[in-house]
Amino acid sequence: MIALRGKQKRWLRAQAHTMKPLFSVGKQGLTPEWLEQLSAAINKRELFKVNILNNSDVAVNELKTMIEEETGIQVVQTIGHTLVLFGESSEAENRHYSAAVQKI
After folding, report:
1. pLDDT at 10
2. How far apart are CA 14 and CA 12, in angstroms?
3. Which domains are assigned to the chain?
4. How many CB atoms lie within 10 A of CB 57?
5. Entry pTM
6. What pLDDT digit, counting tens, does each position of 25-66 carry?
7. What 3 state SS string does 55-73 have?
8. Roughly what angle, to the nearest 10 degrees, separates helices 6-16 and 96-103?
């Protein structure tokens, strides 16, 4: 896991600015299967957004804490009900963002 500095987080936020949320948290809340899907998506994309739906019982801080503690994924930014997540891919060919972040 890369320990992100401020400049690296700013760059990642800029990259994620135009992205649409890839995952949503709804009525079911946080399940182990959902966290497994997040980890699999991080291995493919490294950077994406998650949206918390209005009908969800999960708070933003609760989701942020659970993601960071249960997985190796870092929350780069929270805006309202949207979180920007980053994690280094375990597959070398998918490390587009992490390679660029290490150069910053």
Report:
1. 94
2. 5
3. 6-103 (3.30.110.60)
4. 12
5. 0.88
6. 888 778 888 889 988 999 999 999 999 998 888 888 988 998
7. CCCCCHHHHHHHHHHHCCC
8. 140
